[in-house]
Specification:
Layout: E1 3-4, E2 14-22, E3 28-30, E4 32-33, E5 47-51, E6 54-63, E7 69-73, E8 84-89, H1 91-110, E9 115-120, E10 124-130, H2 139-151, E11 156-162, H3 163-168, E12 186-192, E13 199-202, E14 217-224, E15 229-236
Parallel strand pairs: 1-4
Antiparallel strand pairs: 2-3, 2-8, 3-7, 5-6, 5-8, 6-7, 9-10, 10-15, 11-12, 12-13, 14-15
Helix pairs in contact: 1-2
The structure holds zinc ion.
């Protein structure tokens, strides 16, 4: 399985690696990578793999069934197993995804109702919540709460717990959108604020080091999407 370097350091922009193989759809598998594969509502990374001085443009990254990171080239390539590679992220794209994804944690923390879906969007991101009548948030109040957490610049940290411990605390898993990878015996928790003051949930995504880097946001829209389903759209103000 690919060693996923972004798990322990989401700010790594590049790494050296070796080609393990090319799958039957032309995807490149490395022994290690900084590229985040599409999962949990966060898009897969783009960037460049350089082999023998020649750049290969990577359009996106996905997981295969064996949970390897598969780097999808923009055009077909042939590579020998064992070939050394320099892997460099499209950092602007990844950093924006990290801002969006970290912001989605704050939205989730601010709206204490079940999540039914989420997506990162051009302007920021959105989450669908199952909210009973009479509990729909007021746009300005919601924006003030989230912007307050951003201004306070809370630290975002990770730690690992045993899967059994997670199973014994089912309330930790509030959302359907950030199901962390399981099967390794441990699950990564993402904490926001001192003593998990703002939020704590299992997540395999990439996050900022603190909430301040998200920057100011607005609540763009709260839409009706079915009987109890409300879609809340956030946008970056800058
Ligand atoms: Zn996350």
């Amino acid at each position: 399985m690919t060693t996923l370097l972004f798990r322990d350091d989401a700010y790594l922009k590049s790494c050296d690696a070796k080609v393990v193989g090319i799958n039957d759809r032309g995807g490149i598998i490395l022994d290690r990578t900084v590229f985040y594969p599409t999962a949990g509502g966060q898009p897969g990374d783009k960037g460049t793999l350089t082999v023998d001085g020649s750049p290969i443009h990577i359009a996106t990254t996905v997981y295969d069934d064996a949970k390897n990171a598969v780097h999808v080239p923009a055009a077909p390539v042939s590579l020998a197993s064992g070939a050394p590679v320099s892997a460099v992220l499209d950092w602007d794209n990844r950093f924006r995804n990290m801002r969006c994804h970290s912001l989605m944690h704050l939205l989730c923390a601010a709206v204490p109702f079940p999540v039914t879906g989420s997506a990162l969007t051009e302007e920021g991101g959105r989450i669908d919540f199952d909210i009973p009548e009479g509990h729909i948030p007021v746009k300005d109040e919601l924006a003030a709460k989230i912007n307050g957490w951003i201004t306070q610049d809370h630290p975002i940290t990770t730690r690992w717990i045993a899967e059994e411990e997670l199973d014994a605390n089912p309330t930790l898993v509030r959302t359907l959108w950030v199901k962390p990878p399981r099967g390794s015996g441990r699950v990564r928790l993402v904490s926001i604020g001192e003593n998990d003051e703002v939020d704590l949930q299992p997540c395999g995504g990439t996050h900022l080091q603190s909430t301040g880097a998200i920057g100011p946001i607005t609540v763009a829209k709260i839409e009706n999407k079915g009987k109890q389903n409300r879609r809340i759209r956030l946008a970056f103000a800058t």
